[in-house]
Design goal:
The protein has a domain of 101 residues. The protein contains 18 helices and 2 strands. With 388 residues, the protein is mostly helical. Helix 3 crosses helix 4, helix 10 runs antiparallel to helix 11 and helix 11 packs across helix 12. The protein starts with a helix and ends with a helix.
């Protein structure tokens, strides 16, 4: 035990020394006048990365880099000035960085014009700068551009932006924003009277992690659960098949195949592409172990708070399993978890649980339809295989 502690302490010491040594080298280059290194040193001091946080020193290096014309430093310095309410200085620097072609600055500058917080609202200017940023594959700007188009009631253009954004790579956009984009896309299709497409994207949004966006989801559920009742059985089946396809594709990081190359299987996993079993185990071990432990822990207890927590964590685990939904068994496990979650939460009459009840029921209905769609694909594929 003592040997293990000594070894771990030694590793920590080596790592700490390595980080300090690396930062000293970076600072040396910055002090020699390199604007990029000056910006990196400023970022380190501002956030306390590898060095003690010191915003005064950070400002010194931001200004040194900005004065040499480095666009990222100008933009970052502009953001600091906004925090300090020095709006004139901020706008000047952000505009300069945007004109130099920095996609972050362009997106930020465009967003200032449609949000109208420190400048007068100007949707034309907002679109101009957001388009420039989006053209450089800044997906956050694509999301904001879709909002501007929605403000102008141009739902066709809004949909076109969102269609690109929802298929972006995970590192290009936060999961929270991506889920909002799925909802906005469903809404755009609905307003364009494409009801089947709208309902398909609603289903994709519904089976995502929705706890962080309650107001948006509440609106979506109210609109689309009404649509669920209006669509014919055939239309709902079409929507479920599309949702299954869209859900797998928008979660994709790697593309895997069974031995039959005509049947693609999508995985959201960091494992290298390989056999179906590699993808399966990659998915299984990527699940949040703490969430699984919480489900097991609260399931055993019968008091109200424990049951509420059990319902919450069951839903959370179901969403994680749906991220690997191309594996049939994961859909069934998610469905079972949601059924258990809903059976618990529906028993509570308090008004504060109404939102959780509505969300869980919507997710449950959606996953049932996705399971049915998956079964139809499986049956069709097996028949095709048999006939060959």
């Amino acid at each position: 035990m003592k040997k293990s502690l000594v070894f771990i302490s030694l590793l920590i010491l080596i790592f700490t020394y390595g980080c300090a040594s690396k930062f000293e080298g970076l600072k040396k280059e910055a002090d020699a006048g390199d604007p990029v290194k000056q910006f990196e040193v400023a970022q380190s001091y501002w956030g306390g990365y590898g060095v003690k946080k010191d915003k005064n020193i950070a400002m010194k290096y931001y200004k040194l880099s900005s004065n040499q014309g480095y666009a990222r430093a100008k933009h970052q310095l502009g953001k600091v000035y906004i925090l300090r309410k020095e709006n004139d200085k901020a706008l000047k620097l952000i505009e300069e960085a945007a004109k130099q072609g920095d996609d972050r600055a362009q997106g930020h500058f465009g967003s200032l014009y449609y949000k109208a917080k420190i400048v007068k609202k100007d949707l034309k200017k907002a679109k101009y700068w957001l388009k420039k940023s989006f053209a450089q594959n800044n997906m956050g700007s694509g999301f904001e551009l879709s909002i501007v188009h929605t403000m102008e009631k141009d739902f066709q253009k809004s949909r076109n932006c969102l269609k690109t954004v929802v298929y972006c790579k995970p590192e290009q956009l936060s999961n929270r924003i991506k889920i909002i984009c799925l909802m906005l896309l469903a809404d755009a299709e609905f307003k364009l009277k494409n009801k089947v497409e709208a309902f398909a994207w609603y289903n994709v949004a519904t089976v995502s992690d929705v706890f962080v966006i309650k107001p948006q989801l509440a609106y979506v559920i109210k609109t689309f659960e009404k649509l669920r009742d209006e669509l014919s059985t055939e239309e709902k089946n079409q929507a479920a098949s599309l949702a299954l396809k869209y859900h797998q594709q928008t979660m994709v990081q790697h593309k895997h195949y069974f031995k039959n190359k005509n049947f693609p299987v999508y995985r959201n996993t960091y494992f290298l592409p390989g056999s179906n079993w590699v993808g399966f185990f990659g998915a299984f071990f990527s699940l949040n172990r703490e969430t699984m432990a919480a489900v097991d822990h609260y399931k055993k207890k019968k008091d109200k708070n424990s049951q509420i927590n059990y319902s919450f964590y069951s839903r959370k685990l179901a969403v994680k399993r749906l991220e690997y939904g191309s594996i049939r068994s994961e859909y069934y496990k998610a469905l079972k978890l949601l059924e258990e979650s809903y059976n618990v939460i529906k028993g509570f009459k308090d008004k504060k649980y109404q939102y959780a009840q509505a969300v869980t029921l919507a997710q449950l209905k959606t996953v049932k339809s996705l399971v049915d769609a998956q079964e139809k694909i499986w049956i069709s594929w097996n028949l095709e295989k048999k006939n060959k």
